[in-house]
Write a structure and sequence with these properties.
By secondary structure, this protein is an alpha/beta fold. The chain has two domains: 2-152 and 188-214, Rossmann fold; 153-187 and 216-260 and 277-288, UDP-galactose 4-epimerase, domain 1 (Alpha-Beta Complex). The protein is 41% helix and 20% strand. It contains twelve helices and twelve strands. The strands form three sheets. Strands 3-2-1-4-5-6-10 form a seven-stranded parallel sheet, with helices on both faces. It has a three-stranded mixed sheet with strand order 7-9-11. Strand 2, helix 2 (34-42) and strand 3 (46-49) form a beta-alpha-beta unit. The longest helix is centred in the first third of the chain and has 19 residues, at 80-98. The chain starts with a strand and ends in a 6-residue tail after the last helix. Bound molecules: NADP nicotinamide-adenine-dinucleotide phosphate. Residues 7-13, 30, 32-33, 36, 51-52, 71-75, 108, 110, 149, 151-153, 160 line the site of NADP nicotinamide-adenine-dinucleotide phosphate (NAP).
Amino acid sequence: MRVFITGATGFIGSAVVAELVGAEHQVLGLARSDASAATLTAAGAEVVRGTIEDLDVLRDAAAESDGVVHLAFGHDLTQHQAAADAELAAVETFGEALAGTDRPLVIASGGPVGTERDTPPASGSPRIAGARAALALADRGVRSSVVRLAPTVHDEDTCGMVQMLIGTAREKGFSGYLGDGANRWPSVHRLDAARLFRLALEQAPAGSVLHGVGEEGVPLRAIAEAVGDHLDVPVKAVAAEDAAAHFGFLARILGNDMPASNALTRELLDWQPVHPGLLQDLEQGRYFG
Ligand SMILES: NC(=O)c1ccc[n+]([C@@H]2O[C@H](COP(=O)([O-])OP(=O)(O)OC[C@H]3O[C@@H](n4cnc5c(N)ncnc54)[C@H](OP(=O)(O)O)[C@@H]3O)[C@@H](O)[C@H]2O)c1
């Protein structure tokens, strides 16, 4: 399959490119810089120059492909709504290019909670609009699917969310959690996530919601304890009234209990997460370099 992928140079996208190339798909990756273009060429992909805002570029690349995987997202938190708007425009553009073809469009989203059948609240992340638009394309002849990724996608070297907790623990001199720390975050290894994106591209029926979840829920306190052990700092609860000052923007979600099942995804696509869990990767110590 000839596959156009956005976000191809990112943490997850680079693993998806390797997975697709390894499965003998022909990959075209979106690159917005010379450095990203060079990375893609080295990974065995063709390069499409442009940004996620270049809708003509996206339309042409999608029209010339047998399927699209959309992973690009600007993670500047001060520009979150603008990034969500750009994502919605990109999804609509892919829809125009793919309508009536039954070709696949797989997009990344966040916020798996509960099961794949549960609907996120309309008042949640502005990215819900992009996910809904992708799923609606199923009625227009696009084999669209949405992968709701765990907030802690990790490998042996890093995990974005945990790196933030490590930074805070270093700065404050202790590793903190909220409440009793029993609240759970789902996680997934990025190589397991990459395989899921390939399987979704190849097989997911139109309108599928998939959970990119390897572990249903890792207690926040266990993460805080592993961080405390490695940094050799105390592990303590942070009072609710001090959470914003201590954790910054993370305070808004850190105390959420959000276990998420992957049972329907595993059954639908015969997907089995096989790579280490978050605490195993964290224990290796490479996050602390
Ligand atoms: N990592 C996680 O823990 C996690 C958890 C839940 C959901 N997700 C979602 O999964 C997807 C992939 O995440 P990731 O961790 O791989 O992200 P990442 O490492 O931050 O990579 C972002 C990718 O998007 C590209 N990009 C950003 N803005 C762009 C723009 N305006 N035009 C073109 N390309 C642009 C980047 O290109 P450059 O290389 O040029 O910068 C890069 O390839 C995103 O939708 C993300 O929100 C990730």
